[in-house]
Amino acid sequence: MGAGQAFAQWAERKTAGWRGQWMTAAQLAVVSLGLVVQSHVAHAQNDTSFTLINRNSVAINRLYVSAEKQSKWGGDLLGAVVLGAAQRVKIEAPRDQGCIFDVRVQYANRRLEERFKLDLCRVSTITFDGSASRAEPAPDQKSPSTKTAPTATPNPDFLVVNRSQKVMGQLFVSSADSTSWGADLLPGVLKPGDRFEVKLPRNGQCVYDIRVIYADAAVEDRTKQNVCTIQEMVFAGPGQAGPSTAPAGERIAGYGTGFFVSAAGHALTNHHVVDGCSRVATVIEGQMLPSHVVRVDKQNDLALVRAQVPKTVLFATFRAAPGIRVGEEVVAAGFPFPQVLQNGLNVTRGNVSAMGGIGGNTAEMQMTAPIQPGNSGGPLFDMSGHVVGVVVSRLNEVAMKTATQNVNYSVQGSVDRLFLESNGVRASEAQSLRDIKIGDLSDAAREYTYQIVCYKKQ
After folding, report:
1. Domains annotated on the chain, with CATH
2. How far apart are alpha carbons 288 and 179 in whole angstroms?
3. Contact 308, 286 (CB under 8 A)
């Protein structure tokens, strides 16, 4: 199942400090497999509940939470529940055993991943991504129910290298789950060409965000870095290329929106977004990732693009049968007027008004969620956060010679899925059994909805 937001909005939120099997109704009272909103306030005293997030492409099928003083892991807290890729679940840990706990997950491939000595009275979100997973002990080894730290705890220490022409004045390293940057780690300044060793706790945590602030107040960030797999991180100064600039000999011909539909970086967008482009890029956390067009469907205005992602990505889930109906609420997500707004992913809300497009086109549906130039190719969600269409167009007021309001269209989800599967990409599907808050839906969409940039030669 599937669960990036533009760099500027992410940096602003981070700086400000911000915090399968279906379950029965009884299970939902304790554990919710939907997109759970993260707490924006500090935990109450001895509130050891937390949100577990699976950022691995492999499902989590077991969870153990045990007080640090306990020698056994205890029972599985997920039971019959399977936590798929990009899913979140609210966990209630015991409140009468202090604050310090150890947490273990077991993936569907039987690999284990653990976090030790976590202060659950202060931590509201725990993410597992498989980066520190290890094989489950063989049957003749010590029982996996006995709590033992792995013999080779991943080493998160790394070197920061200043390859810029500026002096670094501050360095911050923060867990990707943290709500703040914490304290400056530099004892002084880091001159061009110098190195600084960052030492981090060896508790199994590997994914961190890193920020450097130069003497001229320029900021350079690295987000969601698996520091256990690198020895040094090079900073060369804030990047100059961005979605508003183009290399020599090229021009930006247009912008659109796309969303990932596979862990390998396949993204769905509109054909007209990439039509005639000499080069296509996907903007992820301020970086322009080269992308190539795999296949297009001109008739239905669809395109399958694959971005050169450095690792597996989160991806969207489509709505399974029964399909969306006229009158149901929908949410459109995208990047409208990027050169003007430049404020990250936008979401708008509306309703399905007709199951057909202009001239009775049965591949499309009409909806009232407001869209603008730049929204093309973005996902249209139902209120469970499942994709039901790809935003494609709005009624042209000039052509109609009359004022129109919220007459917009999307390619229906069934057509989208058929296009993907005919090109070797199997769409993830799930039934829409319950609504989620629009804020939670928006947070999830940011994880796999990105801006597409079309370049053409001068």
Report:
1. 7-135 (2.60.40), 158-235 (2.60.40), 240-458 (2.40.10.120)
2. 26
3. no
Name the more confident of 195 and 86: 195
pTM over the 0.85 mark: no
Per-position DSSP letters for 318-371, written without gaps between them: EEPSS---TT-EEEEEE--STTT--SS-EEEEEEEEES--GGG-TTEEEE-S--
CA distance 80 to 213: 47
Q: Which residues pair with 307 in a beta bridge?
A: 291
CB-CB contact of 315 with 299 (8 Å): no
- Residue pair 6/344 in contact (Cβ under 8 Å)? The answer is yes
Phi, psi of 16 (to 5 degrees): -70, -20
| pLDDT at residue 25, as a whole number | 33
15 versus 50: the higher-pLDDT residue is: 50
DSSP class per residue in 183-241: S---SS-B-TT-EEEE----SS--EEEEEEEETTS-EEEEEEEEGGG-SEEEE-SS---
Distance CA 174, CA 186 (A): 14
Q: Sorting pLDDT into bands at 50, 70 and 90, what band is 393?
A: confident
Q: Which of 190, 181, 253 is nearest to 17 (CA)?
A: 181
- Spatial CB neighbours of 411, under 8 Å, sequence gap ≥ 6: 300, 301, 302, 363, 364, 389, 390, 392
User: Dihedrals φ, ψ of 158, to 5°?
Assistant: -155, 165
Strand partners, 268: 259, 304
- 171 contacts 186 by C-beta, under 8 angstroms: yes
Give SS3 for 43: coil
Query: 61, 103, 66, 56: which is closest to 81 by C-alpha?
Result: 61
197 CB-contact burial (10 Å; exposed 0-12 / middle 13-18 / buried 19+): exposed
